[in-house]
Amino acid sequence: MRVRVHSACPPPALAPHWRGASPGVTCCRGLSQQPPWRVLFFGSDDFAVESLKLLHASRGESAVVDLLEVVTLSSSVPVRKYAEEHKLRVHDWPDVDFSGQFDVGVVVSFGCLLQERVINKLPYGILNVHPSLLPRWRGPAPVFHTVLHGDKFTGVTIMQIRPKRFDVGPILSQEFYPVPEKITAVELGASLAIVGAQLLVDTLRNLPERIANRREQAKEGATFAPKISSSLSWLIWEEQTCEEIGRLFRAIGSRTPLRTIWMGRAIKLLDFVGECQPFLGSHSAAVPGSVLYQKESNTLLVRCEDGWVGFKTVKLKKRLSAADFYNGYLHQSFLNKSPSQKSCQFQSYRQRAQHFPKGQNTKPLLLNTGVH
């Protein structure tokens, strides 16, 4: 179930530039304005394309949008491709032509801090579609951190941006969204992109009212969602649980494979299958990092802090199935061990720091296990 929340507080003053009044809603400066709006859209990625698509579709009879132009950062981003395919005028940042006298700006996954002079050129300011329930997960990677930290619910916030800092502006609208179990960051991002596009158009449909009733973000509960670092992909078998490794894989696995150390070499762990149980004998005394091959399911099982997790594929120089890795590496290593050694072992990154170039950051980021 999704729940929409609107804000309530005293009306603000509008920005100093205005294109002239038309009959309708009266704003704080005594001027009138109502949809359709002249919109300048700032965006880059696939998440932003969903909002651009719906804005583009919201023109015509009973329209929310009158004029729609686009600002992008490079020639290769999805937003530019969509704009060019649909004959929308494109501006290359930062060379933006404001002669079109836009009413409002919309920023979705743009990645650049907009200067105050740009914000002030738009009478209703610039709105931002942010995929979290601000002030939770301010920053560039809110969806990844939502999955990584096991949040049970998230949502989308429509806010007005302010200069000099990201994600601190007043909230115009929010919509709650429960996080499905086992969802990946890619899947969650795709769902929130649709929710965000719909909430954006709903906000624009009632923009003067939403601005008049905006509310400042609470000081309590603010968290930061930094960019995903490749150092996060190094596993620490002694400290991470089955659940934490699963969340980590669902959060970053689509862009950065999970990694560990095998015989002094970095190895990528692919095709995660979740928590597993060994079939043969009792391995409750196995140390974290211990690795077994389960022939019946063609899976590599690795002992972590509180159990075993499975992977179907690994990558050394090339991709190898669990069976290929067992036959080519694990089986021979097992034969060379003494009878007292019951399994082979992956090693955590921090234990093998000496195998990496001097000066390289070998401190992995640890998971915050708190659930919100």
UniProtKB/TrEMBL annotation:
Residues 101-203 form the Formyl transferase N-terminal domain. GO terms for molecular function: methionyl-tRNA formyltransferase activity. This is Methionyl-tRNA formyltransferase, mitochondrial. Belongs to the Fmt family. It catalyses: L-methionyl-tRNA(fMet) + (6R)-10-formyltetrahydrofolate = N-formyl-L-methionyl-tRNA(fMet) + (6S)-5,6,7,8-tetrahydrofolate + H(+). Pfam families: Formyl_trans_C (PF02911), Formyl_trans_N (PF00551). GO terms for cellular component: mitochondrion. Residues 227-329 form the Formyl transferase C-terminal domain. It is an enzyme of class 2 (transferase). It comes from Pygocentrus nattereri (Red-bellied piranha). Keywords: Mitochondrion, Protein biosynthesis, Transferase, Transit peptide. Methionyl-tRNA formyltransferase that formylates methionyl-tRNA in mitochondria and is crucial for translation initiation.
